[in-house]
Amino acid sequence: MRKFIALILLCAFAFADQKIVILVEEMHCPLCTAMVRKALLKVDGVKEVKASLRDKTAVVKTLKDISEQQLLDAVATTGYKGKIINNLKE
Question: Taking the CB of the first residue and of the last residue of the chain, which one, N or C, has fewer CB atoms within 10 A?
Answer without folding.
Answer: N
